[in-house]
Structure formats: structure tokens, C-alpha cells
Design goal:
2 copies of one chain form a homodimer.
Chain A lengths: L2 H6 L3 H14 L12 H8 L3 H13 L3 E4 L3 E4 L6 E4 L5 H4 L5 H8 L4 E11 L3 H7 L8 E10 L2 E11 H4 L13 H8 L6 E9 L3 H7 L7 E9 L5 E10 L3 E8 L2
Parallel strand pairs in A: 3-10
Antiparallel strand pairs in A: 1-2, 4-5, 5-6, 6-9, 7-8, 8-9
Helix pairs in contact in A: 2-4, 3-4
The structure holds a DNA duplex (30 and 30 nucleotides).
Keywords (chains A, B): DNA-binding, Transcription, Transcription regulation
InterPro entries (chains A, B): Bact_HTH_transcr_reg, Chorismate_lyase_/UTRA_dom_sf, Tscrpt_reg_HTH_GntR, UTRA, WH-like_DNA-bd_sf, WH_DNA-bd_sf
GO molecular function, one term (chains A, B): DNA-binding transcription factor activity
DNA sequence: TCAAGCAACTGGCTTAAGCCAGTTATGCTC
DNA sequence: GAGCATAACTGGCTTAAGCCAGTTGCTTGA
């Protein structure tokens, strides 16, 4: 069976989607361009409106287009990625007084904003407890939940977990942690970050995450479960980053040992 | 507006989806369990079959369920992830004679298989050319395309790019590159890997990638654009990994410099 | 010239009905 | 007990029709 035979034997919705996809890939529909409406596509391909609609939905699911209620369907524009290098933990960045997020936002000429959504004492989930080497049957962690924006666009959600017994009564319990953020406080408590462990995965967002991050269909999230180790190679902080995958790239440069 | 008000004001397909999602999260529908059929859900919720079908589609898009033609819709089972540590490039792994992929497959009691789909001389794309520091207007690279399986299940697609002038006439042009794979040959050519750079992102798969990896809807891919640097800190190999995100986790452990 | 209202466009969502194709279970026959 | 055929189940996909809600553009009046 030739390719065009395979094409013609596909359901109409997939054929319409493929034709549109090809137009996008060939540049006939450039980034930001508006697609023909559902009704126009239905007429053009001799299909029902719902069939054309299904074709557009397939493209949205593949991350190629975004539908906007009452306005149209647009080819998604590639976003300039927020790039987080493995040097984002480096002490030399500390000298700028800026966190990695603020540094990257500045590099892109954008205004960083961090909303502290909550600071609560909690029983840790098993995966956090395991990494912080604490019990998971008592309220042994402080959970700081932050929401990061660049020019008012949500980019990432970060949950940071610290040991309660260290954090209680310190600025770690406050929205504003003071100079150099939480790492400054943790260093004063004797934890100098010497090594880090990042566990990286990708998945589709939960509805709540999609809502918080303003994600359209077809955009996954990049999750980083980060553990900071101190001079004794003991874990002292765990953070879970949930990044919009259409806005975030990670970069690791490391020696081969 | 209370949460239940927000719930009741949602379209029926989303309410049905949320109810099913809650049942999954509460364990009432455990991993591997079969959901009620479209027709049964339609009757149960007093909706049209297509409305129930849309609800199931939403769950599939969120990566929670998988529909199987003629059989039913099943709660997706969490897969044991293929975990690739940053030490996968380490020389000490070389002593085992096994590549990182084979090591991980062995750890999980699975049979690794690598299909070499092609070895071709090509003009590199700009992003590859830039990283290998070669021209992108001539056929200056060898492109090795491999497909990796664990117990006959596709896990990743890897495209490796090497300089043509180094690879021509060597085992690098053969499916079987000899002891220690391509890195053994490259070392013989004077390239000892000392540093690596991994650029990590996530996105939805192209239809072709979805086909090759056997991906159901709602599963993104994790892409790693890997560059190997030698003892002179010169790039000598670039590989693009496309991993099934439901089967792959990456781990980076590194010092803070 | 500006603002407001309305028509026409757009996508969002549902319904009823139907047919196709894959899978499973049951019953019957050998 | 095994195998085959068929019915009933399942999901896949389409159609026609309709209504709702958001947006845009045009017209009219002040």
C-alpha cells in the first residue's frame, strides 16, 4: 500500500488533520496564522462540522494549534524557552542577588514575579520523606508553595520542602526569606549546598496544574524533583518543580567521572 | 461560588470526566481496572453516548486511561520507569561491556533490543551543525538512527550524529560498531569523553514518533539533545533521544561548582 | 469622531442516530 | 473437550441539527 493509499484509507478527521499539519510544516500556515474555521473546513473537505472539529482537536492535542473561543484556531508560536542550566545552583549566581528564575527572566527582558501561595506545616508524602530522610507519619516538613510568572504569564509551580525542626521560628516560615532567599537561611543553619540530585520526568498536567499554569490542551509539564545535599552529603531541601513544557528547557553540563 | 457550584456549572462531559477522575484518584478504580462502557456511562449520567465518549477522551488526554478498540477503557497502570542516571556516561559502566540502556534493561529483568534503522550520510540540520561545529550546507554528518526496545516494547528513538570525515571507512558506518559501541571507536579516533551537555525538553510526539513508540494519546515525549565533549572540550558526537515519557525518568547528580 | 447596539462570525458542547470494526462470550456440534 | 459460528458487547467515527457563549466588525446616532 502506498502512502497515499494509507492516507486515503484513514478516517476523514485524520486526513483533514494531516493536510493541515502538512500545511503547517511546509510553512503555508506560519506561526500565529489563523486556520480556516470549523465550518469552512467542513465545507472545503465535504465533511460534517464535527468531523472538521475533531481534526482541529487532533492538532491541538499534538501541540500544534490553539483554539480560542469566539476568535479562531491559531498555529502555535514557538516560545522562547526559559532555559535553566545546571549552573543555576552555582554559588557564583548567588553574587548577583538574583535567583535563577529572576536571572533568566532578566535575560529575556521580562519581569519576574513570584507568588507565595502558602507556607504550611505538613505530613510529607513518602517520596518527599524518603529524600529528606525524615518520618512520613508526623508533620515533619514545611511546605512552601510558590507560583512563578514572567510578564504575568505563569511558567512554573514550585513546592519546596524543608525540615520543620530547622525551619520553625526562622524566616524560612515567612514569605520573604531574606537575603539570598531560602538558601541564605539554610546556609546560616549550616547547610552549604555541595551537590544536587535532579530527577526529571514529563507527563500531562492535572486539571489543577493546567488551570494554574494556563495550559491549553496538548502541552505537557516537565517535572523536576530536586534534592539539595550539603557538605556532609546530607539532604536538606527537596523541591518539586512543575514547568510548562512549552516554556522550559533544562540544560545539564557535567563532567564524566 | 462553592466548589460544587463550579462543578455543577461545568459542561456534562467535564463533570463526567471529573467524577471518573475522582474515582481513579480515590482508588475506587484501581490501575488496570476497566471503566464502564461509553454506553453505560451515558445511561448512568443521563447523557448522550458522544458526551460520555468526550469525557473518556478527556481522561485519555490527561494520560489517565487508555481506550482499546472492541475491549474497553482501562485505567493506565504506572510503568516502572527506565531510569537513566547522569552516570550513564561514566567510564566505569564501560567495564561491564553494556550500554546504559542494556544495563537498565537488565536491572529490570527485561531483554534489551536495538534496531539500527539506518546509517546515512546527510546534510545536518542547523541545531546539529551548530553543536558539532560543522557546516550545515554540505553532507558533513553520519546519521545513525536506532530504535530501542525492552521486551519488545519500544522505549526510545535515538539519532546519533557523527562527523563524516571521521566516520567514513570505519566501523562507525556499520550497524555493529564493535567493542564498547561507537564510544569505543571514537576513543580510538582520539576522542575521550570528558564532559557532556544534555538539553532536556518535553513535548507531544509527532504522529510518526507516536507510531514508532506505540504511544497512546496523552503520553508526551522527553527529548534529550546530548553533546559529548572530548579532552579538548571539543564536541565530537551529538545524539537526540526521544523517550516515551511514561517509561523514562532522568537522573542528574552533580556537584555545585 | 466615538460609542453603542446588533449582526455575523467564531468556537464550545450536546443530542440522536447510525454504521463500521475489534473483541469476547456463549452455544452448538463433532 | 475443542473448535467454530454467531450474537452481543466494546470502541471508532460520522452525520445532521441545534443551541450557547465569545469575539469582531459594521452601522447608526449623537
Amino acid at each position: 500500500m502506498t502512502r497515499s493509499e494509507a492516507f486515503s484509507q484513514q478516517p476523514a478527521s485524520r486526513r483533514i488533520a494531516q493536510a493541515l499539519r502538512t500545511a503547517i510544516e511546509r510553512g503555508e500556515l506560519s506561526a500565529g496564522a489563523k486556520l480556516p474555521s470549523e465550518r469552512a473546513l467542513a465545507e472545503e473537505y465535504g465533511a460534517a462540522r464535527n468531523t472538521a472539529r475533531e481534526a482541529i482537536r487532533l492538532l491541538a492535542e499534538q501541540g500544534l494549534v490553539t483554539a480560542k473561543h469566539g476568535r479562531g484556531v491559531f498555529v502555535r508560536e514557538p516560545q522562547r524557552l526559559f532555559r535553566f542550566g545546571s549552573d543555576r545552583y552555582s554559588l557564583k549566581n548567588r553574587e548577583t542577588g538574583l535567583t535563577p528564575f529572576r536571572l533568566e527572566a532578566k535575560r529575556q527582558g521580562k519581569t519576574a514575579r513570584i507568588d507565595v501561595l502558602g507556607i504550611t506545616r505538613e505530613v510529607p508524602s513518602p517520596d518527599i520523606a524518603e529524600r529528606l530522610k525524615i518520618r512520613d507519619d508526623q508533620e515533619t516538613v514545611v511546605h512552601r508553595k510558590n507560583h512563578y510568572f514572567a510578564d504575568d504569564e505563569p511558567v512554573q509551580i514550585v513546592s519546596t520542602y524543608l525540615r520543620w525542626d530547622e525551619a520553625q521560628g526562622t524566616l524560612l516560615m515567612q514569605p520573604k526569606a531574606g537575603p539570598h532567599g531560602i538558601y541564605g537561611r539554610l546556609e546560616e543553619l549550616g547547610h552549604v549546598m555541595t551537590r544536587v540530585r535532579d530527577e526529571i520526568s514529563a507527563r500531562m498536567p492535572t486539571p489543577e496544574e493546567a488551570r494554574l499554569l494556563g495550559l491549553p490542551p496538548g502541552v505537557p509539564v516537565l517535572e523536576v524533583l530536586h534534592t539539595s545535599l550539603d557538605q556532609d552529603l546530607e539532604p536538606f531541601e527537596v523541591s518539586r518543580y512543575v514547568h510548562r513544557a512549552d516554556r522550559t528547557g533544562l540544560l545539564y553540563e557535567l563532567p564524566v567521572e
